[in-house]
Specification:
The complex is a heterodimer. Chain A is an alpha/beta fold. Helix content of chain A is 29%, strand content 16%. In chain A, the strands form four sheets. In chain A, strands 4-3-5-6-8-7-14 form a seven-stranded mixed beta sheet, sandwiched between helices. In chain A, helix 7 links the parallel strand 7 and strand 8. Chain B has two domains: 347 residues, 3-Layer(aba) Sandwich (Rossmann fold); 28 residues, no CATH class. In chain B, 40% of the residues lie in helices and 13% in strands. In chain B, the strands form four sheets. A six-stranded mixed beta sheet of chain B has the order 3-10-11-7-6-5, with helices on both faces. In chain B, strands 1-2-4 form a three-stranded antiparallel beta sheet. In chain B, strands 8-9 form a two-stranded antiparallel sheet. In chain B, strand 12 and strand 13 form a beta hairpin. Chain B is globular and about 70 Å long. The chains are: A alpha/beta, B alpha/beta. At the A-B interface, helix 4, helix 5 and helix 6 of A face helix 6 and helix 7 of B. Chain B: Its cofactor is thiamine diphosphate. Chain B: The pyruvate dehydrogenase complex catalyzes the overall conversion of pyruvate to acetyl-CoA and CO(2). Chain B: It catalyses: N(6)-[(R)-lipoyl]-L-lysyl-[protein] + pyruvate + H(+) = N(6)-[(R)-S(8)-acetyldihydrolipoyl]-L-lysyl-[protein] + CO2.
Chain lengths: 438, 399
């Protein structure tokens, strides 16, 4: 007889989805959390004033999102912001922001602003891509050619592999190369150049050469009607290419700060801009030259019951899901157990997808013991798979529930069903509830 | 009726002219003046009239100015490069070099000739057969051999190996067929943008010439009128497939379409030298890109695991070696023109052999890279992720 009973295969019990807690069929009640360190006092964001939803209830959309910093003061207090002041610029006393200005910008204006600063401050900087001299299909390069000359901001042919290779050559010569791939769906012809040349040049030259000055920008994620070739999220494909960084901003302020940091980072960076946020996300953005740190996730809403981890567009769906959790509309009212409505969910924006901020994620999950990852890209081999595996490896005994992933389906992005493809608020809510009740 | 017959026959005549292949013998250059006593005094040579074929361009002058000094230098370098490649061959067969190794034995006239026609400021990027370029562009034989052996003294500190050797004027070999060509175009743009009087030579083979990105690069280079010379080293075989079996048009110098081309006898180092000098001048005069095709031959297989005899006959290789060898060709010139005697050339051979042997011995003494170097040079120092996984389960390197 073996000392231990043989291990049985874990068979998950069939679980009803979104069942009312009062239903006699509902088999689970939330387990009290294991004794742990006292939850850190939740520090609401400066602009996150508690305010009940309007009568009838509406979901926060990107336009009304509280994740956006819509006041000057909130914008200037963005966490971990670093200022690159000109020597003669008006500078504030530490801790005050009396002299700094902000301007209302949407994401494409913020991206343009970042590139204008890069071009202005760095003579070697060049911006090129398909139609960028005309302003680009998303207007990210509006009037840059007029302002900085057509020698520095120029159109390339429709030649993605060539653009990437060309940018790598430029960057290897020490030039700041800011290349645009018109849609991230078109990045695949350039995949070889990015993975085999850009990512590996430093290593394979023993440090003699590098393309740290290369930044490849591309719009990513869905717009609701992009279909197969205009709504993809290719970030997961690059996860194995050590040597490059992948950055995805969530808002105008983030886009400007992270893009300037990416352009100046001494490693090649692929900067993927969620295209639906180009116009819909509007924030006060500091007009000065500033950067936000790469490789650092940002805790947007502190919590202790569950960690909700995402990046780019789905962050706003996460926000909507949390709103549904707190105050479910009548149609969902019976399906959201009242005891869970006050659960404090920690919302984290990963920001840098590679190398991702393992310490911040681990710190959060060690505290909340539950993790739900949300991204638009398909599930198989996605970013969520990598994070889930790493978290389960390191925090297996602390987890109260399996790490769940809410992602796009493993299909091409379907034109007619795009709204069903993306992880929307209800799917996120469902996963959050299931994980809380596990 | 006669008129229509003549009109119909015209394309035929044209095709016949195109079909006339470029000279590929290594010893068809003639002395055009007396050889001077002094080693530094120039004298004239005349290239064979079929040493060059032009496409949408005139060909360079067939009159070449050389000095005894220069010819002896070319001879020494070609001999040393062949010796180095042969040493790599032996080290590979002795299992001291592992992995990939592609040798350029037979193609010495192209690498040494290219180097002789450019200046230190010009830039070169190539793909697989990069060892001679790495040495000639500021590296060392020891650095190349040590890199192949995977040692610390290698030019990429043993982290690259064959195909991954760089110098400040040489953007390396490359393991991805054709990937170096758009990178070369980007380098040329940086030169043009910075206003440097320099030319980029982006090299590729007849095999890579069918890659899409080569054509993407042609287009961009012509569009932006870049000082970029695309150099096709046509050694007749892309891995195990002959040019005729892989390319619908084997006249690689014509494949730039709107970019002028020049086909060159790549077995005669004098022709290579003249063509490179001319191409460089042309690019510096803002005449835009050029496709320069060197018709050459690779004696060995594609890589060390390819005997090189399954897709061509031993007789073919033997014939190329005995009649068109670039080193023997130059040797014959030197003797015929009274530049050096057989004994003097033997001394040069001996010196080259000794230099390579010494370099090999020194390279062998170099230690292997340290374990910590597995994780260095992935990201810029100080910007790495907090940790990276290592070779074994649970081996994790914390930065």
């Amino acid at each position: 007889m073996p000392a231990h009973p043989p291990r049985t295969l874990f068979i998950p019990r069939p679980r009803p989805r979104l069942l009312p807690a009062s239903s006699p069929l509902a088999p689970f009640t939330p387990r009290p959390p294991r004794p742990s360190s006292p939850p850190t006092p939740s520090r609401p964001l400066a602009h996150d004033a508690a305010e009940p939803p309007p009568p009838g209830g509406h979901l926060p959309s990107v336009a009304t999102s509280r994740l956006l910093r819509t006041s000057r003061d909130a914008a200037l207090r963005a966490p971990a912001i670093t200022w690159n002041d000109e020597p003669d610029a008006l500078r504030d006393e530490p801790g005050t922001h009396t002299a700094r200005q902000t301007r209302k910008m949407n994401t494409y204006q913020a991206v343009r602003d970042a590139m204008a600063i890069a071009l202005l401050k760095d003579d070697s900087a060049l911006v090129f891509g398909e139609d960028v001299a005309f302003g680009g299909v998303f207007r990210c390069t509006m009037n840059l050619a007029e302002e900085f000359g057509r020698d520095r901001v120029f159109n390339t042919p429709l030649t993605e592999q060539g653009i990437a290779g060309f940018g790598i050559g430029l960057a290897a010569m020490g030039h700041t190369a800011i290349a645009e791939i018109q849609f991230s769906d078109y990045i695949y012809p350039a995949f070889d150049q990015l993975v085999n040349e850009a990512a590996k040049l430093r290593y394979r030259t023993g440090g003699a050469y590098n393309v740290g000055a290369l930044t490849v920008r591309a719009p990513t994620m869905s717009v609701g009607h992009g279909g197969l070739y205009h709504s993809q999220s290719p970030e997961g494909f690059f996860l194995g290419a050590a040597g490059i960084k992948i950055v995805i901003p969530r808002s105008p302020l983030q886009a400007k700060g992270l893009l300037l940091a990416s352009i100046r980072d001494p490693n090649p960076v692929i900067f993927l801009e969620p295209k639906i946020l180009y116009r819909s996300a509007i924030e006060q953005v500091p007009t000065a030259d500033f950067e936000l740190p790469l490789g650092k996730a940002e805790v947007l809403l502190p919590g202790d019951a569950l960690t909700l981890l995402s990046y780019g567009t789905p962050l706003y769906h996460c926000e909507a899901a949390l709103s549904l959790l707190r105050t479910p509309p009548p149609a969902l009212d019976a399906l959201v157990p009242p005891s869970l409505r006050s659960a404090k969910i920690e919302l984290i924006d990963l920001r840098t997808i590679m190398p991702w901020d393992l310490p911040t994620v681990l710190r959060s999950v060690a505290k909340t013991r539950r993790l739900v990852i949300v991204h638009e890209a398909g599930r198989s081999g996605g970013v969520g798979a990598e994070i889930a595996s790493e978290v389960m490896n390191r925090l297996f005994l602390q987890l109260e529930a399996p790490v769940r992933r809410v992602t796009g389906w493993d299909t091409p992005v379907p034109l007619a069903f795009e709204k069903f493809y993306i992880p929307d608020a209800v799917r996120i809510l469902d996963s959050v509830l299931e994980t809380l009740q596990y | 009726m006669l008129a229509s017959f003549r009109a119909a026959s015209r394309p035929l005549a044209r095709r016949a002219w195109l079909a006339r292949s470029v000279q590929t013998t290594a010893d068809s250059t003639r002395l055009a003046s007396d050889t001077p006593e002094s080693h530094s005094e120039p004298f004239k040579l005349t290239l064979h009239e079929d040493a060059f074929h032009g496409f949408k361009t005139d060909i360079p002058s067939l009159e070449v100015d050389v000095t005894k000094e220069m010819l002896l230098d070319l001879y020494y370098k070609m001999t040393a490069m062949r010796r180095m490649e042969m040493a790599a061959d032996q080290l590979y067969k002795a299992k001291l070099i592992r992995g990939f190794c592609h040798l350029a034995i037979g193609q010495e006239a192209v690498s040494v000739g290219l180097e002789s026609g450019i200046t230190w400021d010009d830039l070169v990027i190539t793909a697989y057969r990069c060892h001679p370029y790495a040495v000639l562009r500021g590296g060392s034989i020891k650095g190349v051999i040590a890199e192949l052996l995977g040692r610390q003294d290698g030019m990429s500190h043993g982290k690259g190996g064959s195909m991954h050797i760089f110098t400040p004027r040489f953007f390396g070999g490359n393991g991805i067929v054709g990937a170096q060509v758009p990178v070369g175009a980007g380098i040329a743009l940086a030169q043009k943008y910075s206003g440097h009087k320099k030319v980029t030579f982006a090299l590729y083979g007849d095999g890579a010439s069918n890659q899409g990105q080569v054509f993407e690069s042609f287009n961009m280079a012509k569009l932006y009128n870049l000082p970029c010379v695309f150099v096709c080293e046509n050694n007749k075989y892309g891995m195990g497939t002959s040019a005729e079996r892989s390319s619908a048009n084997t006249q690689y110098y014509t494949r730039g379409d709107y970019i002028p081309g020049l086909q060159v006898n790549g077995m005669d180092i004098i022709a290579v030298h003249q063509a490179v000098k001319w191409a460089r001048e042309r690019a510096l005069n803002d005449e835009g890109p050029l496709v320069l095709e060197f018709v050459t031959y690779r004696y060995g297989g594609h890589s060390m695991s390819d005997p090189g005899t399954t897709y061509r006959t031993r007789e073919e290789i033997q014939q190329m070696r005995s009649t068109q060898d670039p080193i023997r060709g130059l040797q014959r010139y030197l003797e015929e023109w009274g530049v050096a005697t057989e004994d003097q050339l033997k001394d040069i051979d001996k010196k080259a052999r000794e230099e390579v042997n010494e370099a090999v011995e020194e390279a062998k003494k170099s230690p292997e890279p340290e374990i910590k170097d597995l994780w260095t040079d992935i990201y810029y120092k100080g910007t790495e992720p907090p940790l990276m996984r290592g070779r074994e389960r649970e081996e994790i390197h914390y930065y």
